[in-house]
User: What shape does this take?
Amino acid sequence: MSSDNGGWAWFEPFSDGRPASDRRDLERAFARCFGGADGERALAHLRAVTLERALGPGTPPDTLRHLEGQRHLVTYIATLAARGRQGGA
Assistant: This one.
């Protein structure tokens, strides 16, 4: 991670300089983990408790930031699994 990114480079997919073959291997691993009925059920649960969750106007900022982090992680996992199923597009 370079010093000029302010510590946020990890939000960018595969910004750590890994070769494309490593990225494809990782995507395939996520596709295997979250493929099939059990994997889809697990992803559906993660989506339900994060992406499909709404918080009220009185929610403290720390809680909002925490939920947004969870949402990002679930989206990241789902994206890796989808790319792995598509052959690493």
Q: What stands out?
A: The mean pLDDT is 87. The chain has one domain: 19-85.
